[in-house]
Amino acid sequence: MLRLCGLVLVTLLLTTAGAVLLLRWLDPPLSAYMAETTLSAWHAHDSTYQFRHHWVDLRQISPNLPLAVVAAEDQKFPEHWGFDVEAIEKAYSMNGHTHRVHGASTISQQVAKNLFLWSGRSYLRKGLEAYFTVLIEAFWPKRRILEMYLNIAEFGYGTYGAEAAATRYFHKPAAQLTRSDAALLAAVLPNPQHLLVAAPSHYIEQRRAWILDQMQSVGGEDMLAEIDAYPNRRR
Questions:
Q1: How far is residue 23's CA from residue 136's CA, in Å, rounded to a whole number?
Q2: Strand 52-53 and strand 154-156: pairing?
Q3: How much is the pTM?
Q4: Dihedral sign computed on CA atoms, order 225, 228, 231, 233
């Protein structure tokens, strides 16, 4: 029995590691989160749900958008290896003193969660998220992580990825997104089903202004070049 369990464990490790490695070059048609929400909408007979997704390479996305999401979601993205220890410690401390849950997920962790796992909170899912995050950071360059994130992130109910969001909300391709457009898309990422791009609240407008300010300090449009040049980062 122990030998069988060991064989199953090794098989799972090799299978998941192989899948992550292949996705360094292969573009997935959809993510686990896309599949989950789409199936949930179909099961609920939700006529308002419309699946929108179109994969585009990173070079077909305006550099304003990766800059905006790094400024909004994970300013240490160029330098960390999947986890922001300082942010985790801060969130843990804040969660101990309030009923509101504060997250500390990096862009790499969000890719791991949305691409491979289910929604919800549990120790099992967090453990698997950490495992896939380690694999992603080990096998993918930072540019690929950003490319994946920008193609599978939810920017509204049923709207996944930069191209679908740009087409739906701004009626233009992702390559033409302005700094203001990009900051608005990044502003809804914490909760894109309630924070609406099409009808931005006062909070969203304030958050967009903050992101635009942060985009200046993160490094401007040369942020991708800075990622490539960062010590010990893989191309």
A1: 9
A2: unpaired
A3: 0.90
A4: positive
> Two tokens at 70?
């790094």
Q: Distance between CA 38 and CA 40 in Å, rounded?
A: 5
Position 214 scores a pLDDT of: 94
**pLDDT tens figures, 98-112:** 555 555 799 999 999
Task: Band the pLDDT of 160: cuts 50, 70, 90.
Answer: very high
Look at 231 and 37; give whichever has higher pLDDT. 37
Summarised one tens digit per residue, pLDDT across range 183-227 is 999 999 989 999 999 999 999 999 999 999 999 888 665 777 767
Class of the 54-229 domain? mainly alpha
Q: Is 26 left (phi over 0), alpha (psi -120 to 50) or beta?
A: beta
pLDDT of the residue at 104:
73
HEC letters along the chain? CHHHHHHHHHHHHHHHHHHHHHCCCCCCCCCHHHHHHHHHHHHCCCCCCCCEECCCCHHHCCCHHHHHHHHHHCCCCCCCCCCCHHHHHHHHHHHCCCCCCCCCCCHHHHHHHHHHCCCCCCHHHHHHHHHHHHHHHHHCCHHHHHHHHHHHCEEECCEECHHHHHHHHHCCCHHHCCHHHHHHHHHCCCCCCCCCCCCCCHHHHHHHHHHHHHHHHHCHHHHHHHHHHCCCCCC
